[in-house]
Automatic annotation (TrEMBL):
Pfam families: Sigma70_r2 (PF04542), Sigma70_r4_2 (PF08281). Coiled coil: none annotated. This is Sigma-70 family RNA polymerase sigma factor. Belongs to the sigma-70 factor family. ECF subfamily. The keyword Transcription applies. Keywords: DNA-binding, Sigma factor, Transcription, Transcription regulation. Residues 14-77 form the RNA polymerase sigma-70 region domain. PANTHER family: RNA POLYMERASE ECF-TYPE SIGMA FACTO, RNA POLYMERASE SIGMA FACTOR HI_1459-RELATED. Residues 125-177 form the RNA polymerase sigma factor 70 region 4 type domain. InterPro entries: RNA_pol_sigma-24-rel, RNA_pol_sigma-70-like, RNA_pol_sigma-70_dom, RNA_pol_sigma70_r2, RNA_pol_sigma70_r4_t2, RNA_pol_sigma_r2, RNA_pol_sigma_r3/r4-like, WH-like_DNA-bd_sf.
């Protein structure tokens, strides 16, 4: 009886799947460097567990499922106490004092520019929280179109939706974001 176990082609993963996996990751973590790291971690994990591939799904689907776990692990880490202590905030983007500070060591005295920067960061965080509360497809389309500035045709092809469907999703996402921001930022 011939060997019917499906075979993987790791030498073709980068050419065949890297762009797709990167786009998948960057929409979920909103950080291109982190997305690249997660894709790299996905390929490494896939190589390590290649013997477990049973062929019940396509190679791409299998790699996406590994990437999903990597994204979940990332969010679990940053939401843990230890992970929060490791989150770094950038202060002094240029000049002699350039560098990163641990969040726990942030200076307690602020000048007016610092207050505005913190307020802008809080606004950004609230907007991100509102985007995260959108249905997954709305959040994905909204990020791809308005934040990452993908072309309409590219999004439609990637997500297998029509242009009119994309604009309906964008409209609904904006409506829900407006309501969320009004409830959680402007009225607080």
């Amino acid at each position: 009886m011939p060997n019917t176990k499906p075979t993987l082609q790791p030498d073709k993963w980068i050419d065949n799947y890297a762009d797709y996996l990167f786009n998948y990751a960057v929409v979920r973590v909103n950080d291109s460097d982190l997305a690249k790291d997660l894709v790299q971690d996905t390929f490494i994990a896939a190589l390590k567990s290649a013997k477990n591939f049973q062929g019940k799904s396509t190679e791409r689907t299998w790699l996406v499922s590994i990437l999903k776990r990597k994204v979940i692990d990332y969010y679990r880490k940053i939401n843990s106490k230890k992970g929060q202590a490791e989150v770094r905030m950038n202060f002094y983007v240029d000049g002699e004092q350039q560098g990163n500070w641990l969040e726990e060591r942030v200076p307690q005295s602020w000048d007016n520019a610092s207050e505005k920067a913190v307020e802008n960061e809080e606004l950004k965080d609230q907007l991100e929280a509102c985007i995260d509360n959108l249905p997954e497809k709305y959040a994905m389309v909204f990020r791809m179109k308005t934040i990452q500035e993908f072309e309409t045709e590219e999004i439609c092809k990637e997500l297998d939706i029509t242009a009119s469907n994309l604009w309906v999703i964008i409209h609904r996402a904006r409506t829900q974001l407006r309501k969320c921001m009004e409830d959680n930022w402007f009225n607080s």
